[in-house]
Amino acid sequence: MARPLIQMALDSLDFDQTVALADQVAPYVDIFEIGTPCIKYNGINLVKALRQRYPDKLLLVDLKTMDAGEYEAGAFYAAGADICTVLGVSGLATIAGVIKAAKKHAAETQIDLINVADKAECARESVKLGAQIVGIHTGLDAQAAGQTPFGDLNDIARLGLGVRISVAGGIKQATVQQVVEAGANIIVVGAAIYGAPSPAEAAREIRELVDAAAV
Ligand SMILES: O=C([C@H](O)CO)[C@H](O)[C@H](O)COP(=O)(O)O
């Protein structure tokens, strides 16, 4: 199995705390995600700052684009994003726009299936359009209501779409092995790392668990 990637969800609103957290976990993660609240609050300058500080890390900007796909995402790819997210519920025209912007910058597009009714259909159509990553995502509010991403992950993995699958939604040490075995290629972790007494130690543990589950 190819080594799954670990994506650190940087969900603070504070610019300096976001950069400091990135510094702490950098040795253990592959992708820095600038989370949706964080990018809305801090804007494109944070993308530029992390790009400059970490030229060799993958940088995902969790735009969750809903409209004006090419126009909105284009600026973030130009600023250094390797991956931008677009909502599956936005529809195929918007998804196609983000994919077009990504191609201009030799970058990638992730479809976020959050709140999509027919996730299999949306994933299939998005992949046909050229999306490289399908994101199974139980958002923070849905998590608070008791939902998890595990059932959807199994359903999408079974489709064999031939693209990477990302999973997000309360993933922690106890569930890392399960999501790797279910077929996730990108493991997104936020609160289990930034909420830990030592984020670096939590990230190191998750790295070990992911690598052990992937052999
Ligand atoms: O994408 C996220 C959320 O919608 C806010 O932007 C989180 O970054 C994602 O859910 C990962 O965080 P945890 O669920 O805390 O692991």
Strand-helix topology:
Blueprint: E1 5-10, H1 15-25, E2 31-34, H2 36-42, H3 44-53, E3 58-65, H4 69-78, E4 83-87, H5 92-104, E5 108-112, H6 119-129, E6 133-137, H7 140-144, H8 150-158, E7 164-168, H9 173-182, E8 186-189, H10 191-194, H11 199-213
Parallel strand pairs: 1-2, 1-8, 2-3, 3-4, 4-5, 5-6, 6-7, 7-8
The structure holds the ligand O=C([C@H](O)CO)[C@H](O)[C@H](O)COP(=O)(O)O.
Structure description:
By secondary structure, this protein is of the alpha/beta class. 49% of the residues lie in helices and 20% in strands. It is built from 11 helices and 8 strands. It has helices at residues 15-25, 36-42, 44-53, 69-78, 92-104, 119-129, 140-144, 150-158, 173-182, 191-194, 199-213, and strands at 5-10, 31-34, 58-65, 83-87, 108-112, 133-137, 164-168, 186-189. Strands 1-2-3-4-5-6-7-8 form an 8-stranded parallel barrel, surrounded by 9 helices. Strand 4, helix 5 (92-104) and strand 5 form a beta-alpha-beta unit. Helix 4 (69-78) runs parallel beside helix 5 and helix 9 packs parallel to helix 11 (199-213). The model has no long low-confidence stretch (mean pLDDT 97). The structure holds the ligand O=C([C@H](O)CO)[C@H](O)[C@H](O)COP(=O)(O)O. The ligand O=C([C@H](O)CO)[C@H](O)[C@H](O)COP(=O)(O)O binds next to helix 2, strand 8 and helix 10.
